[in-house]
Amino acid sequence: MRLRSLSATEARVILSLEAEGVHELSLDSIESRAAVHRGFARKIAHDLVRKGWLQRVGRGRYLLNPSERGPEAVPDTDPLRAGGHVVRPYYFGYATAAELWGFLLQVGRVYYIVTPVRTTVTLQHPAQFRFVRMPTNRFFGLREIRRRDEPVVVSDPERTVLDCADRPELSGGMGGVVQIIARAKPRLSWGRLSDYLRRMGNRSLALRVGFLAETVRPSLAPPRDWHSRWHVRPDEPWVPLGPPRTFGRRGPHDRRWHIVRNVPDSVLYSEVEPT
Q1: Which of 100, 163, 223, 229 maximizes the CB count within 10 A of its CB?
Q2: What CATH number does the domain located at 8-76 have?
Q3: Which of 86, 84, 8 minimizes the C-alpha distance to 47?
Q4: pTM (whole model) above 0.85
């Protein structure tokens, strides 16, 4: 069993971080806390990572594994804690957010981090992370939650539903999307959902979400004016319910929402009952 040890200079860095309650640091912070030059700060960072006191979460950026986690050189295995320190701004989205809200039952192997910032960071972590680029004008609908006494930013329930419906491949497929909507409906603010749809400016997404909101768990119906809000026109293009690459473009036509039901019910309702 390898126990974590500290030199005098390393102890100065770690103890000052713990005294101030700081969990994230950079090479600049190590340089100033240890009162050393840049090259030696890099060596300290390398040694502290090797000894299990720090985790690298970006270029020149590190996450503290505090002494309260025990004397062994065991890194923090919580993907949300590590992933939440990689890039700013960010939010955990898609299947990850759906799992956090309890909308998706199965635990995914991939943690989705959404950000408007381009990043090439590769986390040294047992979990798999995927970064999803989101335009700045669509970066909204966030909520901060607490996990192990640390803040974690996640898409709120309404934004989670829209993100998952927009990209089923990041959300457990179409069966996962239906499961998410079915479990989310009792907690949704329909006004907020409508506002987000308008801000996103994606007509196809609005029609797909409208159709699913009415057909999945119809006993929990949207507001009576939900359909009329979107002014579905008889002459507008037909929208495939699922990705055409996966399901093709053929299927029954729903004239109320101008949706092509190209996804078999056996797929849509694989995880939930249609009622």
Answers
A1: 163
A2: 1.10.10.10
A3: 8
A4: no
Q: Is the distance from CB of 46 to CB of 38 less than 8 angstroms?
A: no
Distances (CA, A) of 135 to 12, 115, 117, 118, 152: 41, 8, 9, 11, 21
Q: Is the pLDDT of residue 1 over 50?
A: no
Alpha helices in 107-248 (DSSP H): 157-166, 173-184, 190-200, 203-215, 226-229, 244-247
Find the radius of gyration of the CA atoms of the chain.
23
Can you give the pLDDT at residue 186? 95
> Which of 181, 172, 170 lies closest to 132, judged by CA?
170
Tally of CB atoms within 10 A around 135 = 8
Q: What does the mean pLDDT of the chain come to?
A: 88
59, exposed or middle or buried, with CB in 10 Å at 0-12, 13-18, 19+? exposed
Q: Which residue, among 227, 186, 225, has the nearest Cα to 207 in the 3D structure? A: 227
Query: Residue 119: its pLDDT value, please?
Result: 77
What is the rounded CA–CA span in Å between residue 145 and residue 8? 37
